[in-house]
Amino acid sequence: MLDTILEVLREGWGWTLLRGTAMTLLISVLGMLLGVIIGIAGASIKTSGPKAASLLVSVYTTVVRSIPELLIIYLLFFGSVQTASDLAYALGLEDAMTSWFPAIIGILAIGLIAGSYAVEVFRGALGAIPPGQIEAAKAIGMSTRQRLLRIILPQMFWYALPGANNVWQTALKDTALISLIGLVEIMRAAVLGAAATREPLVLYLMAGALYFIVGVGSQAAFVMAERHYGRGMRGH
């Protein structure tokens, strides 16, 4: 096994997997960022927005959660690939289209999927903030902006961290599905390496190890963030 791994590494597939890891992290981070934006906006609407807007958010979360992630990726990809190709051809950006279109679809898909879960994560976090603190801030004359920056957002993010960690771990693993539309991330790099070297077990074990390292590392980062930003929250 060790000799096979060394041979795979000598053929350059280790670097290919590392580049795939970088792409996985890029898609995951940008997709999660989009999901957080959707989650905060959706949570705010469900908490204090108009009923019609709240109903639309509920429909969005229900539909996205009910549809397999792979189907969402396919719908986004095949629903826009022709339009994107025509636009790229008109602008002379065919190469950019080939290189980046799967990544853009991946970011949108991960963002939509993560956002559907993040809505409830942030809604719960908003609900966990003691109402008395908001009333006390109003009583001492804090503006809406001051209440948002000094009371609501810091506590909301702290309360949301455990749930956001779960959403992140799911988003990280969902990037493997984007390999099916041509994006070379960890899983796609492993598939290409397995086909070229005829050593699928070794390549998939290496891919699994990379997912494990990234997952455990990000888990530790969330735990440290929760401890760091929760220093002033103990006892709440």
How would you characterize the overall build of this protein?
This protein has 236 residues and is mainly α. The longest helix has 36 residues, at 13-48. 85% of the residues lie in helices and 0% in strands. The chain starts with a helix and ends in a 7-residue tail after the last helix. The protein has helices at 2-10, 13-48, 51-66, 69-91, 94-128, 131-139, 144-174, 186-197, 200-229.
Please count the beta strands (DSSP E, at least 2 residues each).
Answer: 0
CATH class: Mainly Alpha
Q: What structural class should be given to the helix and strand makeup?
A: mainly alpha
Strand content: under 5%
Q: At the third CATH level, what is the topology name?
A: MetI-like fold
Q: Estimate the mean pLDDT confidence.
A: 88
Estimated radius of gyration = 21 Å
* CATH 2nd-level architecture: Orthogonal Bundle
Helix count, DSSP H or I runs of 4 or more residues: 9
In terms of per-residue confidence, which ranges show pLDDT below 50 for 5 or more consecutive residues?
A: none
Major β-sheet profile: none
Distance between the termini: 52 Å
State the helicity in percent bands: over 70%
Order of helices and strands: HHHHHHHHH
The global form is globular
Number of domains: 1
Superfamily (CATH H level) name: MetI-like
